[in-house]
Amino acid sequence: MTSAAIPLIDISASELVDTQIIEQFYTPQLLQKVLTTTLDFMQAQSDVVLPYFSEVEPSVWQHKPKQLGVYITDAVEGRALNLEARDKDYATNILSYPSELPAFIIEQMPELALGELIVCHDVVKQQAAEQHKTVAEHVTHLLVHGILHLLGFDHELGQAQQDEMEGFEIAILEQLGIGNPYLAR
């Protein structure tokens, strides 16, 4: 990031998630690296407007320290949260809850709250095995994916939006040393 601001990341987990999972896959160092790399990449895209920050002067949002909440859960709670949030009765890999603060609030706050990510590690682990990826690679991909949602990108709006978001993911993951997650292995 062009500023020296270190992201403020709050990591928490359901009581049913083993602390070893957190220590292995969701470290503050990894989350900071993923968040910083994603934000740096998006900041370098001068022709791209971040949907949730379109009314905020780029110099305002770019130089504020960022806040991100990450909550790790299991399949049972993940299913309940997905049902409540999206009316879908299954556990999903990641849910994104953007802060969507009004521009005048963002301008006043010392930090920029991006929102919350809820990661269902059981689903992530299962998908990684099915897709012949490491769990660490899949976690990183989903964190990038979730952060893009927090910035306002949405692959469910149409093919053009899906292609744009996937293109960002592929480029960001390449910077993180991870290959294209959409290629079959």
From TrEMBL:
Coiled-coil blocks: none
Cofactor(s) required, per the database record: Zn(2+)
Main location: cytoplasm
Signal peptide: none
Keyword terms, alphabetized: Cytoplasm, Endonuclease, Hydrolase, Metal-binding, Nuclease, Ribosome biogenesis, rRNA processing, Zinc
Residues binding Zn(2+), per UniProt: 145, 149, 155
GO molecular function: metalloendopeptidase activity; RNA endonuclease activity; zinc ion binding
Gene Ontology biological process terms from the UniProt entry: rRNA processing
Cofactor note: Binds 1 zinc ion.
Protein location: Cytoplasm
GO terms under cellular component: cytoplasm
Transport found in the keyword field: no
Keyword Cell inner membrane: no
SUPFAM superfamilies for this protein: Metalloproteases ('zincins'), catalytic domain
Function: Single strand-specific metallo-endoribonuclease involved in late-stage 70S ribosome quality control and in maturation of the 3' terminus of the 16S rRNA.
Entry's family note: Belongs to the endoribonuclease YbeY family.
HAMAP family assigned to the protein according to its UniProt record, in alphabetical order: Endoribonucl_YbeY (MF_00009)
Protein name: Endoribonuclease YbeY
Gene: ybeY
